[in-house]
Amino acid sequence: MNWIEKIFGKKEQEPLEIRFEELTGWLGSGEKRFSAGGHAASIFLDIEVALDRIRKRASELANEKPEGRFHLKIVKIATSNRDNMVKQVSLLIDNINIPKKTDVKSVLEFHENGMQTLNMCLENMMKSYQYTKMVFFEDSKKVIAEVNELRRLFNRLGEPMNDNKMALEAFENAQSHIQIIKEMTSQIYAEKKTIKDFDEKIDTLQKKIDLNQNSLEQLADSEQWKYYVNCKNDLADLDKKYKKALSDINILFVPLKKPLLRLKQLNDDWKFEMAPGIKKELNLCLSDPASVSPGFFVELRDILKNDTVTFNPDKRDVILENIMYAGANIGVFQKEYQTNLSNFNAKKEEISGLNIVQEAASLESRISSLHDESVSAEKKLEVSKRHLLSLEESLVLKKQELQEIVSGIDKRKKVLF
After folding, report:
1. CB count, 10 Å around CB of 136?
2. Is the pLDDT of residue 349 over 60?
3. Alpha-carbon gap, residue 29 to 142, rounded angstroms
4. How far apart are CA 248 and CA 178, in angstroms?
5. 289-317 pLDDT tens trace
6. What is the Cα gyration radius of the chain?
7. Higher pLDDT, 297 or 202
8. CA-to-CA distance for 158 and 177, rounded, in angstroms?
9. Distance (Å, whole) CA 291 – CA 325
10. Contact assessment for residue 335 and residue 248, using Cβ atoms and an 8 Å cutoff
11. Sign of the C-alpha dihedral computed for residues 18, 22, 27 and 30 taken in this order
12. What stretch of H or E contains 257?
């Protein structure tokens, strides 16, 4: 016989297999059969009598007067410790509450709590007893004897409960595993639903991406799109042309930069007088050559011809040649620049006004947004799949553990999950 049979006796023939759903009821019916029976009931009565005796002995100790000749200091110490012993007895009696039930769980709980209270109070009593007995020897000795008798009763109560405790722990452990398995099963169901939802969402998103991609491809094959592409090519050509004209203008001023800076510095230092209009054009030469008036070069030439101080004759002749060259060509370059720039801006504005541009941009934005959403859903799907796998592996282990526990209760039983 195993320890379960020792507690319950031989069982009637039961089915060897049990469905998981029926396991809670089977365990519950088994737990109800746990009882300490007459053994516990008998000792409960003895404990109640013992508590009354302890209460009586403590009262006698509390009312006892010192007999004999003792030093006053010793009497004070003994009396103080006697009061503490009586206090510990009160705590002991107040904290030991005999249960009305004799089932194993109630008896085990009572035994555990009672022993804890008893040991703590007895330990404190023994400390005070060492001083109390010097004056109140007989009465304090009787209190300790009665408390020790109570402890012996608790030991008698606990001795046959070890097997019961093991059985109760097995049943409680089985019930705990059942609850965990149910929770894990619910989590697995929820995770599978989440995975299904993610799969459906990803499939829906992909269909939307394909639909928008198809619309974009149809748009690219339309006459409007071809016209848009031609406009983009024209815009690129105009961009090159106006930038080339601007480069040509800037090249005209490369050999004039130092002389012009010198004239500006001399004017700023009040060493070279210059009319406001000339000064303005000079600043444009240095900051925005494309906006300089072609007539400025004629005026600048006349100024330098009449000036014999600012530059030496050789340099002045070279500067005058560069001024004449720039003046002769800048008008053509500026016209080419302005024409191409104006055409560039007009073409750019035309392109921005084409509905097909906004339509294509809207489709591309929608495709990008749908793709990002799909990637996010796929990442979450992978997390859910890993979590599901972990749950399923843990569930297998928990089922194995539950089967082992059930086999410990009844080695013939096989759980059908």
Report:
1. 26
2. yes
3. 46
4. 88
5. 888 888 878 777 777 777 665 777 778 77
6. 53
7. 202
8. 28
9. 17
10. no
11. negative
12. helix 257-268
- Residue pair 184/402 in contact (Cβ under 8 Å)? The answer is no
Measured CA distances, 388 to 186, 196, 336, 379, 411 (Å): 11, 12, 71, 14, 32
Tokens in use for 399?
């089922």
Tell me if 228 sits within 8 A of 351, measured CB to CB: yes
The model's pTM is 0.53
CB atoms within 10 A of CB 213: 16
Tokens 């030469």 belong to 285
Q: What are the percentages of helix, strand and coil residues in the chain, rounded to 5?
A: 85, 0, 15
Residue 1 in 3-state DSSP? Answer: coil
What is the helix (H) or strand (E) element at residue 414, kind and residue range?
A: strand 414-416
Closest Cα to residue 245, out of 349, 328, 331?
331
Segment 218-224 shows an average pLDDT of: 89
The helix-helix angle for 161-220 and 104-132 (nearest 10°) equals: 120
Q: What stretch of H or E contains 333? A: helix 313-352
Tally of CA atoms within 13 A in the half-sphere of 188 that contains its CB: 14
Query: What is the Cα–Cα distance from 92 to 85, expressed in whole angstroms?
Result: 10
Burial (CB < 10 A; 0-12, 13-18, 19+), residue 339, is middle
Percent residues over pLDDT 90 in the chain: 48
| 3-state class (DSSP) for residue 416 | strand
Cβ proximity of 47 and 150 under 8 Å:
yes
pLDDT in tens, 256-293: 888 777 777 766 667 666 777 777 877 788 888 888 88
What does the pLDDT look like over 38-54, one tens digit per residue?
578 889 999 999 999 99
Q: Tokens 């010192």 label which residue?
A: 66
Region of residue 97 (phi > 0: left; psi between -120 and 50: alpha; otherwise: beta)? beta
Instruction: Give the tokens for residue 162.
Output: 């070890």
Tell me the HSE value of 253 on the side-chain side, using a 13 A CA sphere: 22
Residues 6+ apart with CB under 8 A from 412: 14, 16
DSSP state of 16: S
**Rounded CA separation 360/395 (Å):** 52
Residue entry with tokens 């508590």: 51
Handedness of CA 150, 152, 157, 161 (dihedral sign): positive
CB 154 within 8 A of CB 47: yes
